[in-house]
Amino acid sequence: MNKSGLIVVIALLLGLGIVSSSLYTVNETEIAIKLQFGEIVQTDIEPGWHFKMPFVQNIRKFDARILTLDTPPERFLTVGKKFVIVDSFIKWKISDVKTFYKATAGNRWQATTLLSNSTNKGLRDEFAARSLTEVVSGERDQLMSVITSKLNEQTLGEFGIEVLDVRVKGIDLPEDLSKNVYRRMSTEREREARETRSQGKELAEGIRADADRQKTVLLAEAYREAEQTRGEGDAIAANTYAEAYNRNKEFYSFTRSLKAYTETFSGQDDVLLLKPDSDFFKYMKSPTGK
Length: 290
Description:
Blueprint: H1 3-22, E1 23-26, E2 30-36, E3 39-42, E4 48-51, E5 57-63, E6 67-70, E7 74-77, E8 83-94, H2 97-104, H3 108-128, H4 132-138, H5 140-159, E9 161-172, H6 175-247, H7 249-264, H8 282-285
Helix pairs in contact: 2-5, 3-5, 6-7
């Protein structure tokens, strides 16, 4: 290759290098700024192919999508002087790329550090103005809305960052406080259990006393009815005996004597001492009893 051909090749390579360094692309998911000697000269760069002055201008690109910052759990103090451990996350995006670049020099780690510090300060202030019950359940949604609004006002002006949402993943008590709460809950449950047992015992005593009363009443009524029935039976028996006696006095006297003999001499060792002329043996002496 001669000298002129080499010069042409070198010129072409230099031209390609200059053209390649002059072209750049911006994706739909990116936001970019154009710098000239370190100064921002353009921020409203649309997605697509663009040109820049080689060796003089350079392009910085940032993620334009919604990003998530998962902050480490922090310890906050409530208005009731109770410590809570709060685990939260933040949804954010770059809204003003010029302010964002000036505040963070385009360093995303520095941006998340500034955002995390601002969020912790906002959470600390809001938790310090509320009780433990309010931050856990009563005003939790309202708390998140207030923090998001206040934090967004600060970060938009200072960092060019729009905070879309701040959410609390969990609120836990410190270990020592959790143990105290557990002991207090256990004591309260034991007290409720004792009250329930006492009420049950009192109810059982009442039921038992009522059952004993009903038993006494039933036995008394049964005894009264039994005596009444026995009396009626005795009356019927006496009446029957009287009627039988009136019909045949001699036969009635004979059967009664036989029954007396049977009941008196029911065993082999039974002994009865009477005078020989006693009326008890009259039917043994004569069938007619004479």
